Amino acid sequence: MNTNLTMKTTDQYICELLSVDNKQGMSLLFKKYFESLVIWADTFLNDMDQSKDLVQDLFVNIWKKRTYQDWNPDKLSSYLHVSVKNACFNKLKKLDVLKHSIEIGQFDKIYDEFESNKEEIVIKILEEVEKLPAGGREVVKCIYLKGMKYQEAADELNVSVSTIKTQLVRSLKTLRANSEKLRDFFLLYFFSKK
């Protein structure tokens, strides 16, 4: 028998059981997907115990929140794998926040250097802003130097708010990429202007 058909039928059966809140559906779902989802999680977390915990938590949340009510059997595997990936990324973000809290001392050094050499640094930042392409340069000036809101800048430049946001992101990336020495000061300067 075709394994794809068996898998599809099995997912169909699991979804039918879950749609009527039958615990057997959850049990079959767990048996069928737990191991592969743990391996999938481990590709992101590189920690088998954390991966098992994460997938177990996912199954508990699925049951508690009844997210299974409208599942499409044809997309069940994809849904589960994307859910695990997202849960892994969320977990990694939390770990990253803890890592960054340790780096606060580094921020203090950057701030002290900025304050000590502010005039010189501001001149260099403004020179870098002038090197930006015209559209990005005008957006940076409106948002950061003039303190405009996105809508105000969009109105002044006759573009959409979406264009303002896109240009701003590109410009900040360009500024940080083009000037290694100033990269830590750009956002510090721009946000001190607001």
What is the gist of this entry?
The protein is mainly alpha-helical and about 190 residues long.
Highlighted features:
mainly alpha, Rna Polymerase Sigma Factor, Chain: A, Arc Repressor Mutant, subunit A, 10 helices, 0% strand, elongated, disordered N terminus
Textual characterization of the structure:
- The protein is an all-alpha fold and 194 residues long.
- It has 2 domains: 3-102, Rna Polymerase Sigma Factor, Chain: A (Orthogonal Bundle); 104-193, Orthogonal Bundle (Arc Repressor Mutant, subunit A).
- Helix content is 82%, strand content 0%.
- The protein contains 10 helices and no strands.
- The longest helix is centred in the middle third of the chain and has 27 residues, at 76-102.
- The radius of gyration is 25 Å and the shape is elongated.
- It starts with a helix and ends with a helix.
- Mean pLDDT is 79; it is low at 1-9.
Q: What is the general shape?
A: elongated
Radius of gyration: 25 Å
| Share of β-strand residues | under 5%
Highest-level CATH class of the largest domain: Mainly Alpha
Distance between the termini: 66 Å
Count all strands and give the number: 0
Q: How many strands, which pairing sense, and closed or not: the largest β-sheet?
A: none
| CATH architecture name of the largest domain | Orthogonal Bundle
Structural class: mainly alpha
**Number of distinct helices:** 10
Query: How many discrete domains?
Result: 2
Low-confidence stretches: 1-9
Strand/helix succession? HHHHHHHHHH
Assembly annotation: single chain
Say what the CATH topology of the largest domain is.
Answer: Rna Polymerase Sigma Factor, Chain: A
Mean pLDDT reading: 79
* Helix percent band: over 70%
